[in-house]
Amino acid sequence: MSRTYSAALPFVLAMTMALGPLSIDAYLPAFPSMAEALGTGIGEVSRSLSVYIFGLAVGQLVGGPLSDRIGRKRVMYAGLVIFIAACVGVSQAASLDSLLLFRALQAFGGGWVMVLVPALVRDQVQGREAAKLFSMIGLIMVLAPGIAPSIGSALLAVGGWHVIFWFLAIYALCLIPIQTIFVLRHSQDGNANHHADTLLTRYRAVFSTRPALPFIALQAFGFSVMMLFITHASFIYQAHFGRSESVFSLLFGANIVIMLLVNLTNRALLNRFSSRQILITCLSVQFVGVLLLLLMTWTHASVWLFLPAMMITIGAQGGVVPNNQACFMEYFEHHGGTAASLLGACQFGIAGVLSALSTLLPETLGFVVASMFASSLVCMIVIIAALKPLPWQRRQVN
After folding, report:
1. Which domains does the chain have, with CATH numbers?
2. Which of 45, 219, 295, 363 has its CA 20 to 30 A from that of 186?
């Protein structure tokens, strides 16, 4: 049975979840200056992004089951402390190796923090109310990737790339009292009924829930489409299309505007359609957007024709993530932290591997768009093979 939750809950959880996109996107404009300071190339610095994504996956694999066993509070506090310490380490990095090391540690702590958000939602509500709460969280945190490059550009102008990571450390530090007051004081210290379960037992219980597994693939490859774009966004707009840092921030933020609109529309549609139906529709729209990107790339279209196709592709994420999370977490009344960790680990792990592999390809627009097409195609195959309801079918009220 769903429980009521305070009005502050979605805002606080959104601020917590925003730690991920802020850590990913805020330093994108600083790639050229970081490469110069560390004596390496932009491509080598971009590897730190893939390392971070992979580190998030590993952190979530550990943090989720740990929170089921010892409670959400301890894992949240420990994750924030690790993240803060790593941010300080990154700000002092003098070589590429030290940068990659501290980014991996930063991601590990961030993974502990981010994996708790879906688990905390599942602790509070379920069903359609859970989908609406996920959508509210998404509505707020969708602004983070849009403003993050602008924040990074401003901090870069004020004090260099080191300041960006000091900002992230302060942001994470502020989350500790906010979480304590509005979220964690209502959280249980552990699941008494399953306290003795081993890590293997918890993951076996999640993997044995076969109807939930297709949503893991949809989360991973749907997110990979956006992750591939983020990894190569600086190259696409600054190198390929020759735009400045300030224009890059605007072009990057245009995608977030569409994500915001899709998220707003999603909340209204949930009153009439199921999360599964909206999810299938948004993934189909994303696939159409990728096809348009292929066409724009093949015809050597200008950035102003390329941009709308990218906005369609990335904007669809505004309806993919909240609905997919709600569909998946609905299956797990118990082992919610473990289920969330598996979903998050696969999302960031697969996306991180794919984005890392994409950096080994020739850095051309054609290869970037082709990689995005391949990921979106996997989503369409999963929809056809594993998900039965069609988008135009009316939802059944439970």
Report:
1. 8-189+197-386 (1.20.1250.20)
2. 219
